[in-house]
Write a structure and sequence with these properties.
The mean pLDDT is 93. α2 packs antiparallel against α3. The chain starts with a helix and ends with a helix. The chain has one domain. By secondary structure, it is mainly α. This is Fe-S protein.
């Protein structure tokens, strides 16, 4: 069971890497737009994160850090909202507001940092 949990954790990290990688390509490529790969990355990260939040495959006596899980869930929901709103603005005006675009990247890094450091 622990092996399966590690596989799900690996998939969770791949989701965030996909999201951040797609964001970085757009940020440093000069276009600063939201792509479908960002949506795929946040979806993979969110689904795998929810699977990790379930109390399965934990060693006896180990408890989940629900404050950390809740914080990461709120952040991933905000990232998803920013992606959705940003893509709507992109379709309407042809551009994503800079604060919204940079917020996606910053929140993605914050979420990864919380996973590693907390």
């Amino acid at each position: 069971m622990e092996t399966l949990r590690h596989i799900v954790l690996f998939i969770h990290l791949i989701g965030f890497a996909t999201l951040f990688g797609a964001w970085a390509v757009e940020a440093f490529g000069g276009k600063r737009r939201i792509t479908s790969l960002m949506h795929i990355g946040v979806t993979i990260a969110a689904v795998a994160g929810l699977a990790l939040a379930a109390p399965w495959g934990l060693a006896e006596g180990v408890e989940l850090n629900y404050a950390k899980v809740g914080t990461k869930l709120v952040i991933v929901l905000v990232i998803g909202a920013l992606l959705g709103i940003g893509q709507g603005r992109q379709r309407k005006t042809g551009a994503v507001p800079p604060a919204m675009f940079w917020g996606i990247g910053i929140l993605t890094l914050v979420n990864a940092g919380i996973a590693v450091l907390w």
